[in-house]
Amino acid sequence: MSQTLPLEGITVISCEHAVAAPLATRHLADQGARVIKIERPGTGDFARGYDETVNGLSSHFVWLNRNKESLALDLKRPEALAIMHELLATADVFVQNLAPDAAARLGLGAAELRERYPTLITCSISGYGSSGPYRDAKAYDLLIQSEAGLVAITGTAEAPAKTGIPTADIGAGMYALSGILTALFHRERTGEGSEVEVSLFDSVVEWMGFPLYYTEYGGTAPARAGTSHASIAPYGTFRAGDGVDVVLSVQNDREWASFCTGVLERPDLINDERFATSSVRLTHRTELHAVVDAVFAVHDGPEMERRLAESTVAFARQREVKDVLTHPQLSARNRWRTVETSAGPVRALLPAVTVVGQAVRMDRVPDVGADTRSILGALGYSAAAIDELTGAGVL
Question: Can you tell me whether residue 83 is helix, strand or coil?
Fold first, then answer.
């Protein structure tokens, strides 16, 4: 197995907090990049304070910040900005998700940095983008999900709901990652840096492609239907007699015939005028679900899963979060590792992208300023100078 990761030799400086930027840079770090996370002295990234569930540490922070170095800098101080520019002079990528105009006010705006460091790749992550009437609006995940229409199509007929994970932040983080990797490839070919911009709003709106087309050309938005589907039936969660929730999907007439024969043991339903085609099954969804529920109610989960498997009908078990921690697929593929934190070792999943034969990086989650001395020492600062800057509140 190769011990060289693809982004080794790439240095990323990140003024980051919360989820979007830390997720992008963690993926870069997983692939070997050196990520120096700039944090406020003392408190650090405010995501450190979201909760204390991981042995006293924040679940969000532990998830998003392995493999990084933490440098504590008060960027409002000129001494700290001087250190930033020493770092940026030899960096490859600068990432920031500060409030609108905050980076520019510090002299760290993309235009200024690109002029000063022509080969530098800058990535700015914002709520709504760098222009437009919402440019300066607060952009927490729920707010973005609401503005982008995601909340309107999530939940049940009775009540909308946000997604259970920070979808807007994750979407922006992954698009930032994609943009940075593209910019690195562009620089490899041309020698030029790039200015990458990503917004949480644009990221979620992109993911809303199907509902937007469905609404514009169909005249109505997809209905909120819990785990059901706006245009496919039967599709969703059905409870077996032992309380096991089985999720299934019948997506064409061939699967419908197999489902009727092998799962429901009701071949008479195949050509029933209420259910014979996908469109009429959707029209008669309530009647159809009543038929399926009646069969599931008198059999246990394993029996229904056996029938579905033998009938080659797509299905899954609806699991609680605690069940995923012991999911047999994760165990069988050895997807869990251990990373170090100041609160002791914790379990962590391997990166979702596997490159055969490539080493995996799963290093520690840093405390605030854990690497300040080593980073500044490498820049030539003496121990006395670091002590002086610390005493002055710069570090």
Answer: helix
Per the confidence metrics, is the pTM higher than 0.85? yes
- Distance, CA of 373 to CA of 73 (rounded, Å): 12
DSSP β-bridge partners for residue 258: none
Nearest to 171 by CA among 206, 138, 132, 213: 206
Amino acid present at 20: A
Average pLDDT over residues 367-380: 97
Strand order in the sheet with 235-239: 235-239, 245-249, 314-317
Please enumerate in sequence order all residues whose Cβ is within 8 A of that of 354, keeping only pairs 6 or more positions apart, or say none: none
**Residues ≥6 apart with Cβ < 8 Å to 216:** none
Query: How is 87-108 classified by DSSP, letter by letter?
Result: HHTT-SEEEE-PSTTHHHHTT-
Q: Is the pLDDT of residue 45 over 80?
A: yes
- CA neighbours closer than 13 Å in the CB half-sphere of residue 29: 27
Farthest-apart Cα atoms in the chain, separation: 86
Q: Which residue has the tokens 């697929």?
A: 329
- Sequence-distant (6+) residues with CB within 8 A of 338 are 345, 346, 347, 348, 362
Q: Using CA of residue 148, residue 168, residue 7, residue 196, what is the dihedral sign?
A: positive
Condensed to tens digits (0 to 9), the pLDDT of residues 122-141 reads: 999 999 999 999 999 999 99
Q: Cβ–Cβ contacts within 10 Å for residue 32, how many?
A: 17
| Beta pairing, strands 235-239 & 245-249 | antiparallel
Q: How far apart are CA 30 and CA 27, in angstroms?
A: 5
- pLDDT tens for each residue of 267-319: 999 999 999 998 899 899 999 999 999 999 999 999 999 999 999 999 999 99
Is residue 58 a contact partner of residue 380, using CB atoms and an 8 Å limit? no
First to last CA, the chain: 40
Q: Is the dihedral of CA 247, 253, 255, 258 positive or negative?
A: positive
Dig out the tokens for 289 from the structure.
């679900």
Give the tokens for residue 284. 């008669």
218-222 long-range contacts (CB < 8 A, ≥24 apart) are: 221/149, 221/152, 221/153, 222/153
